[in-house]
Design goal:
This protein has 98 residues and is mainly alpha-helical. The longest helix is centred in the first third of the chain and has 11 residues. The chain has a domain of 51 residues. Helix 4 runs antiparallel to helix 5.
Length: 98
């Protein structure tokens, strides 16, 4: 896991880190082993740039389409049994003689 992700995770899970002063935040970011672009994005609190540097998706969407209540739920259709030929279904004793 990258140091940036670990830092952001710790910021979200520890309330005391979330309330750091600007100087305390700058000190915490400076202590991380990051490249200059990542460090600058964290310092600027630039989520868009940081997301791009980490290879994240620019936007993510989620949509749900609820079913209509006035329509009955579809049932799985049972496969119909194939009709059997009359001659095959008759037993030898039940065959008519002509």
């Amino acid at each position: 896991m990258s140091n940036v992700i670990r830092f952001l995770e710790s910021m979200g899970s520890d309330p005391s880190l979330a309330r750091l002063s600007p100087a305390g935040y700058a000190t915490a970011v400076a202590a991380l082993e990051l490249d200059d672009a990542q460090r600058q994005a964290l310092q600027d609190r630039d989520a868009v740039t940081l997301n791009a540097l980490l290879g994240g998706q620019p936007k993510m969407y989620c949509a749900q389409f609820p079913g209509r209540e006035d329509q009955p739920a579809k049932r799985e259709e049972q496969p119909e049994e194939e009709p059997q030929d009359d001659e095959e279904s008759e037993t030898p004793s039940s065959k008519k003689k002509h």
